[in-house]
Specification:
Length: about 400
């Protein structure tokens, strides 16, 4: 224990917390200023007149009153994207290729955790325990999803990627796409044989759907309750803890040092006594476990999952990793927060700003358009690639 505290590096544990605060506040302030200025300009046009007729308040007031809740929702989904993006960026940092099967590893964690909770609910366990035990069972389901997803990721690396490690980069990329389809159909087959259902619903128990209300804001004659649901709080807290833990693991442990050494130069790391195969497997294990945890958090937040549940979150998490700087752990965090904010802002205000011509269904187009602009002017992402950082 004394040795642990002697080697404990609090800076590496607390640094990502500071980065999260900076990125969250910076993204919130920047995007808020943009939409508020835009609302102020549009207030003098037909758009402002329509909003005034519909909501009895100006477009600027409508934007300002809804802003706190939009920021909360944006942070929630942004941290989910960040947790998934870490799996992509860890693998790319070590092997310099995109593991497109990570979406289905995410789905594996979601299904394992949800099925465990559904079974407990069917046996009546979740209906007879205390509120505290509800959170314990949720944590156990998350851990089970992490273990299952991590083991699947290690197996995929051993079977589908390791034999192709010296092949041209396009070859393992095609293999990853094939593994993605294989895992999708495996989930479908397993669910067909065991439950006969394509969709699975996160069971209702505990007080996860309850909301913590901060206050009420008035928008004309309509009061708006400002608050956050318990499950959104769980998503944010769990994602923050995972991001802090991963940063400490990579930057302040012996295994993390080995991972960074392998990312920098596999041949030299091997000559220095590092077991490259074991380190790469560890990287897949950690990245897969994070993806599995994010899968259960996603199921908790959005309730319904199916065999293809990993496609869109995985695609957006990959986008977040590229947006922040692929191979950069801090970039994955920034990209996830920014993408989550962009999506939420577009979903909340696009309809009002376009007089209903473009609604929330266009939020993905808006987010990806911003990504294209960022990559045009900064191809390496907001923070740049960091695949060969000093070990």
């Amino acid at each position: 224990m004394q040795r642990f505290f002697k080697n404990f590096n609090a800076r590496e544990l607390l640094r990502p917390l500071g980065q999260m605060v900076v990125f969250s506040v910076g993204s919130a302030v920047f995007l808020s200023l943009i939409v508020l200025i835009l609302a102020l300009v549009l207030d003098q046009t037909a758009v402002g007149a329509k909003v005034l007729a519909q909501y009895k308040v100006s477009l600027f007031t409508y934007t300002l009153v809804n802003l706190p809740q939009v920021l909360i929702d944006g942070l929630t989904i942004g941290f989910v994207y960040a947790a998934i993006a870490l799996g992509y960026t860890m693998v790319y940092g070590v092997l310099q290729f995109i593991n497109f099967a990570h979406s289905e590893i995410f789905a594996t964690g979601a299904f394992v955790g949800v099925e465990i909770l559904i079974a407990l609910k069917a046996f009546g366990v979740l209906d007879t325990v205390s509120l505290t035990m509800d959170y314990v069972f949720l944590l156990l389901a998350m851990l089970a999803g992490m273990v299952a997803a991590g083991l699947v990721a290690v197996t995929v690396e051993r079977v589908a990627y390791r034999p192709l490690r010296s092949a041209p980069r396009l070859v393992p990329l095609i293999s990853a796409i094939g593994v993605s389809f294989f895992l999708q159909d495996t989930i479908r087959l397993t669910e067909s044989l065991t439950t006969g259902q394509f969709n699975r619903i996160f069971p209702t128990f505990g007080n996860f759907d309850a909301r913590q209300t901060f206050g009420t804001l008035s928008m004309g004659a309509t009061p708006i309750a400002l608050g956050i649901s318990n499950k959104s709080l769980i998503v944010i807290i769990a994602a923050v803890l995972m991001l802090m833990g991963l940063n400490y693991f990579v930057n302040a442990t012996k295994t993390g040092r080995a991972i960074r050494a392998v990312a920098q130069d596999q041949a030299t790391a091997s000559l220095m006594g590092v077991n490259v195969n074991r380190i790469i497997s560890t990287t897949f294990l950690v990245g897969g476990a994070l993806g599995g945890a994010a899968g259960l958090l996603f199921a908790l937040k959005f309730t319904r999952i199916d065999a293809f549940v990993g496609f869109y979150p995985g695609l957006k998490a990959f986008t977040a990793a590229v947006l922040g700087g692929i191979g950069n752990l801090t970039g994955a965090l920034l990209g996830g927060i920014v993408l989550g904010m962009l999506e939420t802002f577009a979903g909340a205000y696009l309809s009002a700003f376009t007089m209903g011509a473009a609604g929330a269904e266009y939020k993905d187009i808006f987010a990806f358009a911003i990504l294209i602009l960022v990559l045009i002017f900064r191809p390496n992402g907001l923070l740049g690639e960091n695949v060969t950082q000093k070990a």
